[in-house]
Amino acid sequence: xxxxxxxxxxxxxxxxxCYWAGNYGKKGEKRAKRNKATPEQIKNQNQKNKENRxxxxxxxxxxxxxxxxxxxxxxxxxxxxxxxxxDFKRFRDIMRKHYAKKDIPFKYIYRVEIxxxxxxxxxxxxxRLGEDGYKLLSGAWTKxxxxxxLEDMLAEYTDGMTxxxxxxxxxxxxxxxxxxxxxxxxxxxxDTLDDGTEIPKEELKQVSKYGCSRNLIQPVPEVHTYSHWxxxxxxxxxxxGLNMTTNRHRTDGYIIDxxxxxxxxxxxxxxxxxxxxxxxxxxKKE
Length: 286
Fold this sequence. Notes:
The chain is of the alpha+beta class. It has 2 domains: 3-36 and 219-280, no CATH class; 59-212, 2-Layer Sandwich (Alpha-Beta Plaits). The chain contains 7 helices and 13 strands.
């Protein structure tokens, strides 16, 4: 085996991950010394795996214009985690009916979080509901929390209980792979508040998880093993060189993101690796 390549294709782009022994995967080259993973390395790798899973789910199921929401409670509200989940279920039930009326799939990924001051809120990526579907979100959350319109009018004036943004595939003039959203949903929950109060272990365990609708499309990795090819030419050309030539390492109509080009040696497996992502070229008319 000269090298193995894992390709994950999504509507946002194609993720390539190559693994090999030695410098280039040539015959006779050996992998570097393998080491036993430390608890900290295992923790960091688990966190990275979690972020990658969420990022790929975002890429497979969401696109420009889908909702990036924060569902909040009025300042000073303290609710048990189970009560928050009941509110969120009512919100989903209300919105699911609106999606069914328009025959639009209702998709979402969510995470409940406890803020630094103890306030609990929900981060949520949700599929778009037509041109004016956003107008239904605030009312649905008010109804789900069994709040009165007056209570929410006062809260809306000061802070707003439903903060709406949108998913973007281009940010600051650059193509995005959804990494920032995934990291936000997957970020570790601190075990203490700013005032030193410790979050109960069971509650901490619950808010460290994320959830999603059952209808999400899962990415299917393609695994290719090349026994008579090495990595030499790929590494020597780099992202810029591959973008300038026709080759089998870059899909036609795509361009490799130079910032995604990462290579090194895994200290645990001893295998060398190369990771990069290619994005579809966007035409001016788009």
